């Protein structure tokens, strides 16, 4: 069977590409790339890791503390992320105590990372420790059993709660995951015993550690995704590394037996990501412009504060009238936006500027379509209604760096601005700098070193202004090309 046809028949596949330096995992649904996860050995994410941390600084004004967990940057712990469990407390009504009551400088705490270090910000921490396994999540210090809201069958909820309640011990309790629906006592008992042993090891390491130390490290990317994708309708998991394939086989046999027969070792000569056009899709995911099938397009801009998405009709002219054209474009854009958020792993505040619609019904349907498209996203999202300016504000939980931040760095020429000064602007800037230097220092003549385009402009288009400057100063201004200089860089040297 040709590969193209084979891909169409598959609902969802996990493609795992392994090299000595990095692991990449792609989720392909109906032949279309939906998610990309990248883990580099040198920059491995630390979300889920548990540390013995030392309070290095308490900040009452921010209601937070900085914690030394052994990384280059101190981690951040807010007062609301410090769990204080008291008998009879209702979480919703419990007032968060002052940070000075919760943390003291030099104090040691057991903390878990909930957000990786991003840009200039250190990792974010919590003392509400959670240890996930196949069916359960262990919560140290908790007394009550929780059940996933996605388990809707009330009888099964009560059954699971009754079974797992027996495993609660003096060290903590459990949350029952969605994957536990319909599971028997034996599987749940195994999970609870495994988590109990794991927590005992963590306690032992904490007691033996004399300073800040790593107590527990989360699973590698490929194992973590197998655990987290449980419940997704995966048809096949293809791995291009024999060693990783064997490791995944052992893991699935013990923890996720239903995925064991879906593992497939890929031994083809062509790279696995090329066969499925994943490489091209990743390249496109780094561009600002996203083409829509109708001829419209999206413009996605990622900033420090938020991500903005602008929708345009582009070449799409429609068939009836302008309002229908706009509505069709906005409706098509909702699916594209939901996919791009997953693919690019965009988080935080997201502002969507849909094309203005006159009819309330159209706005309602577009909003409903957006929410429906986002329902497939495993990351928690929250969508607001249209604002008075016609914008849709939404949030998407951010735990790891976006795809752009993982694969790209700041442009050395524009320093992240996204634009460069025109050659004309730099020429006039040089004129002003020469005048400033002349007034500040006594010099006989000047030499200007600049990039080739700027020098060409000074000696051609701007030559009459250069002559006027020399006449004004009564001094020679010589222009020299410096090939190593970036477009905006120049130097004015006194002679």
Task: Please describe what this structure looks like.
By secondary structure, the protein is an alpha+beta fold. It has 4 domains: 3-43 and 219-279, 2-Layer Sandwich (Nucleotidyltransferase, domain 5), CATH 3.30.420; 50-216, OB fold (Dihydrolipoamide Acetyltransferase, E2P), CATH 2.40.50; 286-407, Aminopeptidase, CATH 3.40.630; 423-494, Ribonuclease E, catalytic domain (Hypothetical Protein Ychn, Chain: A), CATH 3.40.1260.20. Helix content is 32%, strand content 26%. It is built from 14 helices and 24 strands. α9 (322-344) packs parallel to α10 and α12 packs across α13. The longest helix is centred in the middle third of the chain and has 24 residues, at 185-208. The radius of gyration is 29 Å and the shape is globular.
Fourth CATH level, the homologous superfamily of the largest domain: Nucleic acid-binding proteins
Specify the CATH class of the largest domain: Mainly Beta
**Name given to the CATH architecture of the largest domain:** Beta Barrel
Q: Runs with pLDDT <50, length 5+?
A: 1-10, 86-92
Report the helical percentage. 25-40%
